[in-house]
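Please go through this protein, sequence plus structure tokens, and consider how the sequence yields the tokens. Keep your notes short.
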Amino acid sequence: MSERLLDILVSSIYKILIPCLKMTIPLTLIVFAISLVLAFLLAMVQILNIRGLKQFARIYIWIFRGTPLLVQLYIIFFGLPSLGIVMDAFPSAVIAFSLNLAAYNAETIRSAILSVPQGQIEAGYMVGLSHPQIMLHIVLPQAARVAFPTLFNSLISLTKDTSLASSITVVELFKTAQQIAAKYFEPFALYCEAAVFYLIICTLLTWLQSWLEKKLEWKQPLKKGKESYA
């Protein structure tokens, strides 16, 4: 590695780190939070079998799971202005990513809720709990444990997918690397450096996921021969 290239890589660390902290990470967290709310609503509409809204939810999920995220970004940022709807790049990215991710997370949440045994729900009714109480105290805590790994995986994938926001001029981590690479004509080294940033973030998230999964584990029954009797 030449001294010039080393100087470029070292000097670009700070230049890439700033948009990573100010744009990539906030974009990821905002989108994930919004998508969870939308996903929960879409899942509940289907589970409660609300006429009209259930069909809307199915069509919504079908469209956003069946079309590329990049196309959705282009429709919102470049397409909507032709209809008189003009938005800045960042809110356009938030909307596109949120709508897309919500479609996937909705199916995860719906399947997790449906995985709770029907007998437990019936038992809740038998002891006099209302439907909201059953959902809050019996169904959702168990569904959260089931859905957590898949939802957290979607967060990790979203972190990497935010690089697509560079295509609609959002100056995030990858867009900054592109600009530096164009200035110094060192695309291979700069793109590899950007990849390292994504790798570090995703590795930290993976460690966090493992730690949280251990916290959410069901308590294991005592092994045979270890039971204690009062």
